[in-house]
């Protein structure tokens, strides 16, 4: 019968259990550097001293990778739709402003003569008493060969240059737009008159262009 202990401790058979190898370079008991080639320790290989390739690659900074070139937009693509809409709106507004200015200029051309006539008519209205005195002096013969004759002529000539006209003569057909009938009398009318006719002028009328400053104040009569 064989002894179990002697068989277990036999050098021919390996002992059962885990095998522990001390690979520390410094001996914990003596503090000296161990010989890596000694039995029970294995030399440190390059694989053990070098970090893994993936860790080395991760530690190194990434190389500059050129960014992909982007195609530059063409001239048609560079113009955004929003910019096109704004430009169109501004152009439409400019055309409207030009049309409005043109209409205003044409209106001023039509209204300018009327404004001028109105301004001259205001001056004539202020001179009506003087003009009436000159007319009466002419009718009575007091102005002829007098010192004021030339002054009266110059005044009427100057007013005529600005479009002022005197109207109202005996024998004219009565026109309510140009005559103001102060009296309706029985009198002979010029031969050939068919309607109400002016037979006497008390105050002549004045107009500037088409604007009547004052109608002629007259006496009228009907044909018999």
UniProtKB/TrEMBL annotation:
Record's keyword annotation contains NAD: no
Superkingdom in the source lineage: Bacteria
Biased composition regions of type Acidic residues, renumbered to the chain: 45-56
Ranges annotated as biased composition (Basic and acidic residues): 19-37
Localization, UniProt: Cytoplasm
Pfam families: GrpE (PF01025)
Annotated segments matching region Disordered: 1-85
Chief location of this protein within or outside the cell: cytoplasm
GO process annotations (BP): protein folding
Keyword terms of this UniProt record: Chaperone, Cytoplasm, Stress response
GO (cellular component) term, any one: cytoplasm
Low complexity composition-biased segments: 68-78
InterPro entries: GrpE, GrpE_CC, GrpE_head
GO molecular function: adenyl-nucleotide exchange factor activity; protein homodimerization activity; protein-folding chaperone binding; unfolded protein binding
Function, as annotated: Participates actively in the response to hyperosmotic and heat shock by preventing the aggregation of stress-denatured proteins, in association with DnaK and GrpE. It is the nucleotide exchange factor for DnaK and may function as a thermosensor. Unfolded proteins bind initially to DnaJ; upon interaction with the DnaJ-bound protein, DnaK hydrolyzes its bound ATP, resulting in the formation of a stable complex. GrpE releases ADP from DnaK; ATP binding to DnaK triggers the release of the substrate protein, thus completing the reaction cycle.
Family of this protein: Belongs to the GrpE family.
Assembly: Homodimer.
Protein name, UniProt field: Protein GrpE
Gene source species: Luteipulveratus mongoliensis
């Amino acid at each position: 019968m064989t002894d179990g202990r002697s068989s277990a401790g036999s050098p021919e058979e390996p002992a059962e259990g885990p095998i522990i190898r001390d690979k520390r370079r410094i001996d914990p008991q003596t503090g000296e550097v161990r010989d890596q080639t000694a039995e029970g320790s294995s030399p440190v290989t390059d694989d053990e001293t070098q970090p893994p390739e993936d860790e080395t690659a991760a530690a190194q900074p990434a190389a500059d990778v050129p960014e992909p070139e982007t195609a530059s937009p063409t001239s048609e693509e560079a113009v955004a739709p929003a910019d096109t809409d704004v430009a169109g709106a501004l152009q439409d507004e400019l055309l409207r402003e030009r049309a409005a200015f043109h209409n205003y200029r044409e209106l001023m051309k039509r209204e300018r003569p009327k404004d001028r006539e109105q301004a001259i008519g205001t001056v004539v209205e202020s001179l009506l008493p003087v003009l009436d005195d000159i007319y009466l002096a002419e009718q009575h013969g007091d102005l002829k060969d007098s010192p004021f004759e030339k002054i009266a002529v110059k005044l009427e000539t100057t007013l005529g240059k600005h479009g002022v006209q005197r109207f109202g003569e005996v024998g004219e057909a009565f026109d309510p737009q140009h005559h103001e009938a102060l009296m309706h009398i029985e009198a002979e009318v010029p031969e050939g008159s068919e309607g109400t006719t002016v037979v006497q002028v008390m105050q002549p009328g004045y107009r500037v262009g088409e604007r009547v400053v004052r109608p002629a104040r007259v006496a009228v009569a009907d044909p018999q």
